[in-house]
Amino acid sequence: MATAEPGPNPRKPACAVTFGRSTLLGRHLAAALAASGRWSAVVVVDPSPSSSPPASHLVHHLAVDLSDPAAIVSAISGAAAVFHVDPTAAASSDGSFLSLHRVAVEGTRRLLAVCRACGVGRVVYTGSADVVAAGDRDVVNADEDSAPYPDKFGNAVSGLRAQVEMMVLGADGMDGMRTCVLRPSNLFGPGDSSLVRFVAGYARSPFGKFVIGSGSNMSDFTYVENVTHANICAEEALCSNAASVAGKPFFVTNDEPIKTWEFMNCIMQAMGCQRPRINLPARMLLFAALFSNMIHHRLGFQILSTPLLHPDTIYFLSCTRTFNTSKARRLLGYYPVVSLEDGIMRTVGSLSELPDNLGLSRQQSSCGSSKADKLLGSGTAADILLWRDEKRTFSFVTVLFLLFYWFLLSDRTFILSAAKFLLVISLALFIHGVLPPQVFGFTVEKVTSDYFEVSHSVVRNSLMCLASAWNRGIGKLRILAEGDDWSTLLKVLAFLYSIKLMLNFQFRVLMGLVLASLFIVFIVYEQCEEEIDSFVAMASDKIKWLADRVAGNLPASLKVYIS
Questions:
Q1: I want to staple 122 with a disulfide (CB 3.0 to 4.6 A). Which of 70, 81, 164, 516 is the partner?
Q2: Does pTM surpass 0.70?
């Protein structure tokens, strides 16, 4: 417990904030209440231990678990108001339903009972607007009256939050205690480890270059200081206008709906990553996510507690969810004190201060230049094969497919196809050459002979490359003939065996597989670079271990040749 040297002012009441140090909103709310000058002391009730000193001498941190009623009584005794922050945001890392239910529902029930027993006058609970959003249903400018609880919640967390809401609203008027509920939408701010963590995880994932859905869906995002301001407004309204405010929920946002992917792009660019440009159909991914969930529940496969390919994630990234705050403005006197643009800028400016477990440092370095990009020369070929310019890539895919069809899939021989191809090119160049400089107002650029000339440097460099490749090949043959490099011999044998296997395919099938692989393999490797590298390293270690074990069992006479 952190104590203040000067004693509390008896003329000012005290207040309590639950889950203050372990949540983004709790930290900002405790600091704002201490700075408001209205409270003699701000008691932060949070089971997580505090390692940093309080932001103000008025802030007292108490490591209290909501499962201990006696500890809660000693913590909030004498408080005139309690600000209860969504407890699911501070739940244990295992994320099991039982732990969430114990912290959220049972903990809130004990807290409300203690508040009534201690004579707390006002309780403001801050939950989430997700309690009225379920599935792929769009929520457009919803208000508190037109957006009831859904018949079936999209996930267990939303269901628990709805239970907590109903408990807080149902406790209004008991023993003189007045309550209300705030519903912020997509809370974010400096030091955020929830929404920003999600964006960082998405940027690192194989889906990092893809937009889920059309990309036109809108969402409301709420800066943390605006939610802090809404809590202060709600508590004051419970004092002055309890008849109109008590027992009611209120949506709280920045009142600036924005495209979900525009917000995502702002955070991604701050991490040094490119904007995702390729659209993936949401319904296809939703089917895959539902199938994955079915396998998890039916067969008991172990998957991540919050996997990226999850129905809730797809709904968030592809559905519109905006809310109307006119009721909060009218009854609470709430208005955003920080604009969405300023909030994003402040959050982006704090990314470097986030803990390393978000993986941002690794992401910033990996977004600069991947191994696939370096392998392709970081030039035009990399832009095309890594799908950085979709129009250009699609143009090359179309041209290659036409050439593939013209030379290999048609019934003509290769020589006949080449002859007709050259005939078409010659005819097109002849027509282009006889056209006048102006045709219907359009300027026709003439193709000069310079386009078909090859410079001496290009020829010389090509010959030098051929000579260098020839010399390297002769060097490898000499090493193989000497019999001293078994590693090279195994690589050559594996390469020759691969050629033998490929010769079993028809040439047209083989070329089709090669062309298709060019536009798939590199982008897959770039998106799953770490996983593939770790798998290759593990496989290499296993093969080396197996080779050493086999070599150890060979007779001494054979070990001489491979040592």
A1: 81
A2: no
